[in-house]
Predict the structure.
Amino acid sequence: MSRKLTYILRPTLPRRAVVWFPSFSNVASIDRFRSQYDPMGNAMPAHLTLVFPFHSRLTLDQLTAHVQKVVRAWPAFPVVMNGMWSAQNEFVGIASQVGRDALVEMHDRLYRGPLAEFLRPEFDYEPHITLGRAVQPNQFDALIRNITPVARDTYRDLFRAVSLITLENESEWSRDRDVPLTW
């Protein structure tokens, strides 16, 4: 007699991330560029990722508690972004100039404790806002040429809070919680 295996289908774990949504006064040029060159450009506003998307059993309350513990070490601080950032001959964006060290330290601390297993040490963290992605290898050079005017501009804001988001798929996401820094 053969035994029939029964599989219990479990719902997929949520795919969460920790990001900053800046409020640049001159965000229109970023939005125009992203709408053309970023697959998520029309789905999600411009953002700086501090913890990259990960699947986890952590509840939203557990993740919020960890993020609150980390970010309360910082008062609100200025961030100035300009200049081009690129990675892997695939992604382009704008780099962080002012506030960079605080962003790197915040990223490093967020990846301690319950999020340590999700850190990808093979990548050096460079605070940036992704503006475009070369879907085909031959598109990267054109991205570099086209991003130059956007990257030359300067974008300023005060970093006041991080957002915990859930990504449903490549075009759907939700903003679950905002966690303020210390004032």
In short: The mean pLDDT is 92. The CA atoms of residues 54 and 131 lie 21 Å apart. The two ends are 69 Å apart (CA to CA). Strands lie at 15-20, 48-55, 77-87, 91-98, 128-133, 155-159, 161-167, 173-180.
